[in-house]
């Protein structure tokens, strides 16, 4: 798995590589990724470097705060269930290759989810 951000416990996984390995995982098109800007909410996959359970990764939402030539910075908007070195509010550096989903505020407001189905929620989508 290609990664950029790494700690002793977790690393960000490349969304395109992940989608090629998992049937049914759809990721945003390049055109959608090019439109991501501060204020958007995106989902990233945080893979465990040395998983000690059956869980190898967590999908979590990140609020995009900034964008520059190196990529994005954002704030973790989800409390991890397994990864102990992260908590909601932590700053995350990433690039568009890590984004598996872009939150759809309009779909959420209309009551049809908003997560695109790439989540662990109970929205039914």
Task: Kindly describe this structure.
- This protein has 125 residues and is α+β, with helices and mostly antiparallel strands.
- 14% of the residues lie in helices and 30% in strands.
- Strand 3 (57-68) and strand 4 form a beta hairpin.
- The model is unreliable at 117-125 (pLDDT under 50).
The end-to-end span amounts to 27 Å
- What are the segments in which pLDDT stays under 50 over at least 5 consecutive residues? 117-125
Report the biggest beta sheet as strand number plus sense, adding barrel if it closes. Answer: 6 strands, antiparallel
Number of strands: 6
Domain DUF2314: 39-100
Pfam families: DUF2314
InterPro entries: DUF2314
Organism: Arcanobacterium phocisimile
